[in-house]
């Protein structure tokens, strides 16, 4: 059972309904312990105002979504590197537990996954150099293999940890049950990560059938992911961060009253 | 470059347009070297008649699709085991190079992936016992992780080879670029498989965006898979089987004149 104070609301879950201020107020109203904003919501509010708003709320910040997209221009360009440094600064400004990285997929007009993965590792290395100077942990989020082409070419926890091993301290993983639940190697890899590198843990569910690869995620309990199992694996390593709820749901949860969404998250989390 | 005689037509590619007889005649008309029927097409024609038709055609048979579905009833039942033995018999009857196994996903109302994988391994073991008596190679097809819930809980080549290691001789893998292209470990695993266990090699392409998880595969060249790269990996191990083309495409190729589809397959394969 997850109590509301152990939950964090990823703003993507109510992205169509609420701005950041409304999300912060919603979390407080429902007793949810933390928030994880996306950068567009920060920018909309203004980073300084957003940082003040979050600090004043007393909410924990389980992460900032998201840096990365290193392959967007086909090579590591100054603008990509600088944008990631700004993301680090923003994560610091709001007191985030980590900056979550969605690393980017294949470069434009490219079929070269090996090269994309090289670019990503180089980019993470540069961002990490900067993040270390301001003590912001970098969390690689391995994305489900169905996003390898267009969102992230880091697709398994093993692959993310290989990059962490290569780059050293200050970098770990953000694990979302949606992306990792299928992985036959996940138990071994969560143990390999260990407490220090388990920087974030995200919840939602995998619906059967899934009608849209991007925006048809389910509320916990509506799909087939054995969430208590994966939670027990990260907690066995000592993970004590919040359980962040991130649900992209164009046809269902994004269409509902967000107070109803938050109440349902709380109900479902009690059953996890 | 793949010449037509090195191609095999998986009947799924023209499943909406042609029965088995038409597919056999189509292959002969276009100089395609082999065919890989699905069982429904065999049953429709009658297995004995189909076997005769294929033998008389002189086409090679790169595989029979498909056995497996061990988890369909939540436990290994006699009917599941017997159906797989019938599939082995049918593969023998048509002179298939292997019986391709789509192993099944989670059991009904189950979230237990570990248990599903156990059932699958036990089921494969039983089918393999029978298949060895008639010398029919069993080919586990690791399916893309997006099918873990509802089609196959064997989702990586490493996982399939672990099962092969456990079960011994007579079993290997059928690798479809659609299912494996994202895998950061694929080069290592193809080398680990080696010629003896590389039983089939399937072609199509991954479209961006993919609008349907099941029936929106692309024609080779229309997506982002570096097909020559994966072909070179299997051929480096000595794989000399046919290049089997299996395209599920509800909104495009299934709606076209199948002779046009075959001609396009031949054109695209020359560029691979």
TrEMBL record, chains A, B:
Pfam families named in the record: AP_endonuc_2 (PF01261)
Domain of life: Bacteria
Entries under Gene3D superfamilies matching the protein: Divalent-metal-dependent TIM barrel enzymes
All residue ranges annotated as the Xylose isomerase-like TIM barrel domain in the record: 29-259
PANTHER family, sorted: HYDROXYPYRUVATE ISOMERASE (PTHR12110), XYLOSE ISOMERASE (PTHR12110:SF52)
Protein name: Xylose isomerase-like TIM barrel domain-containing protein
């Amino acid at each position: 059972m997850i109590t509301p104070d152990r939950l964090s609301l990823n703003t993507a879950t109510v992205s169509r309904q609420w701005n950041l201020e409304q999300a912060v107020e919603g979390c407080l109203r429902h007793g949810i312990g933390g928030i994880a904003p996306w950068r567009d919501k920060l920018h909309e509010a203004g980073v300084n105002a957003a940082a003040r708003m979050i600090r004043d709320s007393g909410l924990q910040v389980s992460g900032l979504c998201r840096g990365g997209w290193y392959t967007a221009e086909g090579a590591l360009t100054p603008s990509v590197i600088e944008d990631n440094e700004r993301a680090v600064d923003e994560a610091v400004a709001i007191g985030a537990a980590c900056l979550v990285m969605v690393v980017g997929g294949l470069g434009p007009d490219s079929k070269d996954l090996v090269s994309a993965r090289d670019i990503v590792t180089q980019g993470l290395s540069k961002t990490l150099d900067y993040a270390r100077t301001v003590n912001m942990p970098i969390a690689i989020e391995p994305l489900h293999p169905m996003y390898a082409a267009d969102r992230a070419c880091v697709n398994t926890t093993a692959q993310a940890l290989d990059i962490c091993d290569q780059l050293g301290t200050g970098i770990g993983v953000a694990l979302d049950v949606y992306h990792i639940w299928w992985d036959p190697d996940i138990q071994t890899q969560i143990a390999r990560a260990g407490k220090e590198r388990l920087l974030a843990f995200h919840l939602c569910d995998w619906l059967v059938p899934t009608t849209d690869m991007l925006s048809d995620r389910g509320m916990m309990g509506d799909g087939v992911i054995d969430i208590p199992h994966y939670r027990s694996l990260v907690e066995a390593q000592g993970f004590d961060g919040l359980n962040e709820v991130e649900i992209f749901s164009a046809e269902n949860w994004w269409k509902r009253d967000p107070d109803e969404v938050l109440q349902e998250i709380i109900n479902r989390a009690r059953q996890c």
